[in-house]
Amino acid sequence: MKPSTSSSPVSSPVTSPVTSPGTSSGPSPQAARPRARKGVATVCLSGMLEDKLRAAAAAGFDGVEIFENDLVVSAMSPESVGALCADLGLSVDLYQPFRDFEAVPDALHAANLRRAERKFDLMERLGADTVLVCSTLSPHATDDDGLAAGQLRALAERAAARGIRVAYEALAWGRFVNSWEHSWQIVRRGDHPNLGLCLDSFHVLSRDPAPTGIDTVDADKLFFLQLADAPRLDMDVLQWSRHHRLFPGQGSFDLPGFLAQVLAAGYEGPLSLEVFNDIFRQTDPGPAAVDGMRSLVALEEAVAGIEYEPSDGRARPRIELAAPPPAPELLGHAFVELTVDDESAPQVSGALTALGFVHTGRHRSKPVELWQQGGSNVVLNRDDRGGGSTGTDGQGAAGGVSAGAGTRTGTGRAEVVALAVESRDPEQSARRAEALLATPLPRRRGPEEAELTAVAAPDGTQLFFCPGGDASGPDWRADFVPTGTGTGTDHGTEGAVAGVLGRIDHVALAQPNDQFAGSMTFYQSVLDLRERDFAEYAAPFGLVRSRTVGNASGEVRIAMHGALLRRGGWAPSVPDPEHVAFATDDVFAAARNARGRGLEILPVTDNYYDDLDARYAPEPALLRDMRELNILYDRDEHGAFFHFCTGILGSRVFFEVVQRVGDYRGDGAVNAPVRMAAHRQARNRTD
Ligand SMILES: O=C(O)c1ccc(O)c(O)c1
Ligand SMILES: [Mg+2]
């Protein structure tokens, strides 16, 4: 696993410039609006209360929801929690939850009011002015809206005396009240200025993926907004909510549509993340809070992109949403950089040579080589610190990968340390990345070295932005002195080396399970990529999940994969391999050429080809060629996919050659178990 990089604190997330009202009279649609405040519930994060608060502040949140249990278990007094929040620049936006209050017999109601008064005392000490009351699950409650409304009104009356507001939230599994519409009816019926609604996207969207009418709620009754995404799962809704919530953009809920409605109603309060997730609860709260903040900025950007016509009945949001610089178009992968050592370098360069690559350039000042073929550029970096080829200090490459028992083939270090994409505007790509909380990488520029803009991804991978198309900017290839072996031109190593392989098709990065969602959010939001493929498959040593994200043209694709659980002790402790896939128009010629140059293509079992025959009945000659050359196959409704792999090179990389036929969307994930078993088998042979 690569070391994760800490992200820089962000004190003021980017918002679009507030333009002056201009010369026209009357209110301008561009009139200054307050910026949307961002919040996070302490329940989203791991650690003691103070760890959570510090992480929230460092990630740039404006406020927090204090979850009752986080306070109950804390040794800090409510006053000192409030003081710490103030020191950290956080407002205490909500105290939550207050449970099982409404629609109970009188005696219990009196006890509930007493319980509430003690919580109001606590909130005064804490400095919190809004309490969340979630719809009751009490066995003593009755199905009586009038009683519920009356008791909530009595609560609001007591709260008002303390300057406190009561935000009523319908839990999706509430005993009698489980829809936002029902909670809104009760709030209206309760009719008290200190009684309003808390809307939680999970409770609303888990029941109805496309709710309507939220924009008709009175703005002054929308007391609080909690945001969470989730995958669509067919399961008990309480379990779904308590274990599987995700940050916005990481699941399948339409959060932009939901938030747009809430804002159209005139909501001006905080946008607050409330995500119960088993993994986030257990990971370092610092990076987790940054992931949450990044997802919120991306959500605000998505909502800001929704057009509001004066005639469509929807009001523009009253608050100013984050507006990172738009993502410039990406034209493809510029290069991939692998770190190698003395042991792995000959394996990696041997495989590249067999695949038809040519070592065309040597870095001016570092032990770094450029290998090229037909638009694919691979940089091999032997710098111990790694990441040194392109002007950074190489934090991403620090720390070795330990290859465990059973990896007789290639124990030398080899892994992907950097990805470079071609952007129509590299400077803007970098500004966008920073607005989305990417850590800028310091540049270590030597004489005559291109100063590329780069940021660190949460998984430690360095992400470079290179000029593409007619964008001006430094040419990273100028850092390399031609070796004379390529068809280099005056511009050093710019000329393509002709061969059967074309451009880089995709790069696959291994992700530990606890980093998976965060990495997805990072690559998707920073590079403006969309999900192109999702798969879960049973590999020999456990379940593997893979997701591919790409741009609209398909020229940039990043595949992420990882085991769902830490490997069992008995399984080989090999790090998940990463790979670089090169595109070709003739996979059979590519395989024959590579074999002719001595490459041992990863052997595929006979059973696989028998199964292919059964499933697809390919032409016998085609099947024979695939079998002979160890070429794997997949297809979807848009096209077909042929591919083959090398063995594992060094500790954890391999190369793949792929041919897309038609508009095939995936990247052969269905064959991953076959490939993983084959890699394992190949290792056994050399044990
Ligand atoms: O799962 C719960 O109990 C719970 C508590 C408070 C909330 O705001 C919520 O959405 C769920
Ligand atoms: Mg909630």
From TrEMBL:
Its EC number is 4.2.1.118. Residues 387-409 have a biased composition (Gly residues). Keywords: Isomerase, Lyase, Metal-binding, Pyruvate. Belongs to the bacterial two-domain DSD family. Residues 1-36, 380-410 are annotated as: Disordered. GO terms for biological process: 3,4-dihydroxybenzoate biosynthetic process. PANTHER family: HYDROXYPYRUVATE ISOMERASE, XYLOSE ISOMERASE-LIKE TIM BARREL DOMAIN-CONTAINING PROTEIN. This is 3-dehydroshikimate dehydratase. A divalent metal cation binds at E169, D200, Q226, E274. Pfam families: AP_endonuc_2, Glyoxalase_5. Its cofactor is a divalent metal cation. It is an enzyme of class 4 (lyase). Residues 503-647 form the VOC domain. Pathway: Aromatic compound metabolism; 3,4-dihydroxybenzoate biosynthesis. Catalyzes the conversion of 3-dehydroshikimate to protocatechuate (3,4-dihydroxybenzoate), a common intermediate of quinate and shikimate degradation pathways.
